[in-house]
């Protein structure tokens, strides 16, 4: 949810150990942008990041279904407008230059799989 609203993962790191440390210390590492427009979603995200016994759905199982999600819509319409002309339409994706991907374990002497 955080990544969909903010645009990047909440505990981004160079490696899995650092990511784990950030998750375990979420009170210090979970940061919301200053101009975060989705207060209701922030509360829900923070309720996912807590001790297991206090986590959403841990006791009654109904918090998410009972959450008032209609208040998160501003009524201003979509933030992003896109269209799709068919299964091969990639016009909504960013353009990146073609690069030669170097796959570990595939040296010059090894056959490609």
UniProtKB/TrEMBL annotation:
Report if keyword Kinase is assigned: yes
Task: Give an example GO molecular function.
Answer: kinase activity
InterPro entries, per database record: Rho-assoc_Ser/Thr_Kinase
Its keywords, alphabetically, are: Kinase, Transferase
This protein's superkingdom?
A: Eukaryota
What this protein is called in its record is: Serine/threonine-protein kinase 38
Task: Tell me what organism the protein belongs to.
Answer: Orchesella cincta (Springtail)
């Amino acid at each position: 949810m955080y990544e969909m609203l903010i645009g990047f993962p909440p505990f981004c790191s160079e490696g899995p150990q650092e990511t784990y440390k950030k998750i375990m210390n979420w009170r210090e590492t979970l940061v919301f942008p200053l101009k975060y427009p989705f207060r209701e979603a922030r509360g829900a995200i923070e309720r996912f990041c807590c001790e297991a016994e206090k986590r959403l759905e841990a006791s009654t199982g109904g918090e998410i279904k009972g959450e008032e999600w209609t208040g998160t819509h501003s009524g201003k319409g979509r933030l992003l407008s896109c269209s799709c002309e068919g299964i091969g339409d990639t016009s909504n994706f960013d353009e990146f230059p073609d690069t030669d991907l170097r796959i570990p374990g595939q040296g010059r002497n090894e056959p490609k799989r």
